[in-house]
Amino acid sequence: MAAETEDLSPHLPSYLEEDLLPAEHSDAPFEQYLAAVSPRGRTMLLPALLEAQRRYNYISSDTATQIGRSLNVPLADVTGVIEFYSMLTTEPTARSVIRVCVSPVCTMFGSHDVAKSLVHALGTTLGEPTADGEYFVEEVQCLGLCERAPAVLVGERPIGQTTPDVIAELIKRPPDPPSGLIRTGTRLLTSRLGKISPTNLDDYQNSEGLLGLKEALALSPIEVIEKIRSSGLMGRGGAAFPTGIKWESAAKASGESKYIICNADESEPGTFKDRTLMEEDPFSILEGLLIAGYAVGATIGYFYIRGEYPRAQQIVGEAIDTLRKTGLLGKGILGRDFNFDIEVRSGGGAYICGEETALFESIEGKRGFPRIKPPFPTTSGLFGMPTVINNVETFANVPLILRIGPEEYRKFGTDKSPGPRLFCISGDVFMPGLFEITEPLTLKDLIFKHAGGAKMGRKIQAVLLGGAAGKFVPPDQLDVRLTFEDTRAAGLSLGSGVVMVFDETRDLRQVLLDLGHFFAHESCGKCYPCQLGTQRQLEVLERLATGTLIPGDRERLNDVGWTMTDASLCGLGQTAALAVLSAIEHWPQMFE
Amino acid sequence: MIEADRIVRSTCPYCGVGCQVNLHVREDRIFKVDAPFDVAPNFGRLCVKGRFGVDFVHHPARLSKPLIRKDFGRTPRQPVGVEGFREATWEEALDLAAERIANIHRQHGPEAFGTFASAKVTNEDNYVFQKFVRGVLGTNNIDHCARLCHAASVTALTIAIGSSAMSNSIAEMKDLEVFIVTGSNTSETHPVISTFLREAVVHNNAKLIVVDPRKIEMTQFAEVWLRQAIGTDVAIFQAMAQVIVAEELYNQEFIDARTEGFKEYAQSILDCTPEWAETVSGVPADDIRKAARLYANAKAAAIYWGMGISQSVHGTDNALSLANLALLCGHLGRPGTGLNPLRGQNNVQGASDSGGLPHVFTAYQPVNDDEVRTRFENYWGVRLNPQPGLTVMEMVDAAARQVIHCYYIMGENPLMSEPDLKHSRHVMENMEFVLAQDIFINESSEFADIILPATSFAEKSGTFTNSDRRVQLIHPAVPAVGEARDDWSILCDLAKRVEGKLGRTTSAGFDYADPAAIWQEMAALTPAFQGIDHPRLERENGVHWPCPSPDHPGSPYLFEDTFPRGKGIFTPLVVTPGAEVPDLEYPYILSTGRVLFHWHGGTMTRRSKLDDIYPEPTVEIHPQDAVAIGLNPGDWVKVRSRRGEIKVRTLITERSPAGMVFIPFHFAEAAANELTHDQRDPKAKIPDYKMCAVQLEPA
Amino acid sequence: MPIQLTIDGKPVSIEDGASLMLAAQQAGVDTPVICYHEATTPNGLCRQCVVEVEGWRVLAPACITSAAEGMVVHTASERVTRARRTILEMLNASMDLSEAPAIQQQMDEYKADRKRFPGAHRRSQPLLDDNPFYVRDYDKCLMCWRCVQACGDDLQFTYALSTGGRGYESHIATFFDAPMTETTCVFCGNCVAVCPTNALVSKTEIFMSRGLDYDAIRREKRKQRRAEKKEFSDD
User: A562 and C83: CB-CB below 8 Å?
Assistant: First the structure.
């Protein structure tokens, strides 16, 4: 764990830089790569496995042995980690892996048909490489491209709005540009989106970039924390925990080192806001990390980006490089006694790693199992040290708060939900996309006034608010204001800002089945309620979707659902049944 | 699922850890072994031998009737299997044995007997054995295999501090701060202890220093691994001491209060710099410095060692060099410190404690101490011999000189464990009378005239004393096999017969109701045992001796205030060459030892399912050497020394360094001790099993 | 300093930091457990020990939740009972619990319907017999992790086992499914000792339960093997 103890030179050692740019890895022999990372030990396990997967399209037992030996990880644990992450395989895949999204929105826009056409055109089947070893098609959970469903990831190229009949073209198509579908009034967090060259630091500085950091460095760390606290900023990852309190607690905690982590494992079906920010305005997030590092007294940051976001990884990596080259990362930042550097880590295909403690485990080179809390991350987080972990959007708010001041900031949103807020609208609306809300707004207004309402004059049947882990809102309850306090009063949660719209033509039973598949696929398997409950729930939802319910199924869903909600170890299990339970509440007859 | 008819608490019969076990019995068969999680020393942990290896108890080859050699009386005798014997009644066998013993006694006197107590049987059995030897035969020629393992440790510790046992307890291990493991492949020889040592590293962030030529498993947990050339241990530890003295890292207060000879010692190591040690041992000087600083700067640091230290021509010096280190830093007399020779056999500590040694009665009370001897004479009502007797290898010599005419071997297998077997066998062939007492016929009892069938640990009661001096009970779980009897009961019967045939008018006393009564007598004669009796052991699951009174809690660690000899003494040492160095003709160094799945002579483990996983004799060869010799993995290879030749399977591994091969000594069909030599440490009389020269040739 | 709390209406005084399980014990309430074992670090996996703490959003696993001053705890509320019963029912639909008497007893106590989930997909796996000492019958494995813990950081520090797969398909794994003889396993059997369901069972025991004498069969086989190889003295 060199990164912890190392004297932070302006540049991290070369092996780190190599790791920052997955798309441009050198093709030095793998042995050489391993020799370079081996002093850091187990924390390099997932990066090394991803690197092996990238080079060889799979991980053979010989490669796994080599990796385990050089990182001093028990071989059984290497297998455990490989099997945990869905992007790692022990059987050969192909030079180009085509991932077809089958989360609810993409499914209803026909992604299963796209997958079928793909394998047909390529003369193979799902999960089997083509004879020439060129292509490998698999169905995966949400790719975070919901605004242009149905979406596909060809190698590292994101491609949206695919149709089954243009397969040949699809394979060769250049990647989609980052989403430009941003429609709002006041633009704060999204002000630079689409307007600057994302990794051009001059562009960033010319649009008020770095002012927050400079303001912060002119203050004491305690004063910075006080600004964040008084801004009322709450975490945008779903749990809505007050950011200032989190920072304060980590700043006070004692530890040999402290860490700042940006949670960019955005995997909640229907969410794509973090990806958009990373792809279009990476500096604002990095500026947030820098400010947090200064405020908390941390010298190392990790930027954990899900494996399905290769482009975001590349852009963030480039941005970090630029900051390093200009001395904004490293030692003595802006002439102050402030050292900080950031390392990008890629996820390996596991929704659970968005859970903060599971993410720590992942960085530590273990299976992404959530930990028991307490202890909480602020006192015992990554490597057992005080850690601040925030969502991408949360970090993006930080420079804004420092730049305009907490009072100005609080003018946006409501008193109890201050600041701007991003929403991801997908499904059956006229204009799906990313929306920045700076004034209190009802769900109905967001859908109808901003996203153009349902298509072709159809009626809205239901809205899934908060993502797969959220709840259904029936059409007669759309008047709820999109604030923390209003949604909570209505028994809802904003979650990560997902608004998934289903019109009257959709079969909600299919949507529920997709959700069931999602949770069964993503349950880590640690605690029994979720490990068993997601499977038992899926089995009933399969009967629901095929019209083969048996007596007692609604009770079964209730018992399983409430057991998961009440007794699961982490947030995943505790929310894995919310959508189903809300559907039972609103549409009981569907389950008869 | 099998419901047990009964679950019987006992003590594992294999190594010196003394794991507490529960024997699950159904229809008089042990079908499962597990361990209580809340009881010391193992707290639920077991190794493969303890958990799966007690099936030897039910092996069909178990001796069930007394056996008398068919060609009884003919010499030189040949080794024979069971077919060379005829079954006899106890009456006939014991009477015949007593007759022969009495005859030899009349003819040649007490010194004609060489007797082997046993590190496998109970304290009570051993006590009665030595009582028979001393009180009836009138000799102190009694020894056991401890001579072949930790004699050098015992000698060294006696010199340095006046005691010979492990100073600290197993229970302290998980809380260690710094510790040295040297000459001990702990994870294979003391598997459960190794788990506590690893626990200290993993959970307590303890720093482990391994000093060993072989890349043993413990090196994976080591902070520093000093891979010395075989036989250069003294150089390493002297150099560590030199660093500690030169950098003034020693514990002045301790040295002043508790030791003598520091100045002379400090003077003697002036030139033993790490650089010097590097040229001798090949270990980088900086690593030696690092180890020295770790050990010296720790608040508490312990040393653990095994056969790699003691089974050497300079074994005593090896152990003394460790004692010097501990005295320098004052790492003695507190928890987490100590000088800890890890004992091999389940009751090797106990066999010594209960008088199975040629110079001492129970608890190391010297036979030539008049006060002590008088106490025993008064209690037993017989006159006792004040002359210390012969050690194991001296008995072999005496037999070769035809001074010893009769061997009585109880539960040992000298013809697997002694070095230079060809010689030992020759001695056995010409012995006038050999009496063996065991649970199986082994390589030694194949030479016996009479074999008396004994019960195994699972069939009797009594106590074993483990490596950390913890006296623990065993209980009968299954009935005796056939007519097999407990060792103590056989001994009592035989003793009375011999007394009768010798015309003794008073008996030394061989009428015991049970092992508990034997313990009572032993405790009465032994101040250090007086606080221990069977009911207390039952209540407390074991007690660490010394324990002088019933209200004394026992002694998990020793020497808090003083050493048995008063002050600890430093011993200046010089590095001496190895026993037999390789040359052009015999270019490889052979080291012998154990593997996880087998036990010593293999008498038990090779009659267990343990043999299925490690069925063949092997030799560990470095890849470079394998290429040079032209060996592939699994090839049969002939290993030859100046004394003998065996054929074993090639195991290619980097565990042993190039130029050194390692052969486990468990396999009768390829006994490693055919190759070893009988060069002994001058002080401890222990043979060197760790270094002899061999040549290898594809078979 | 001891703290005061209430469990099922009874006042309890206990050392600060003690688990709710201990506190419940003091109140005379037995807490049902599946994954918990005295020798392994509690991971709070099975959630069978959950209790309801007033004011808490979710139920608390009693094995790893520290008692706190003034807590009001219910160990038999409707939520608690539903969770415990449902966990048992879901487990029973997933694997073979026939040799787990403690869990069978819990099913009786919580009136678990042993056929609650008809048509449920069971995690069946072939019995693995790859060493002379024990078999691994993972049909009976309920993923308590104790064997992994016993092999790793709790007892043996040998690390031959890990958890593999994910979610419902989680399983106990060796490196690339290698047989135990090709792993770092030292056959200490500490894993067997902590297995609650007989998924890990000594061969002597499993043979005996089928009316066979493993030791005799083994010896016979070995004799044959040796006769074929002619390399061993007979025994």
Answer: yes
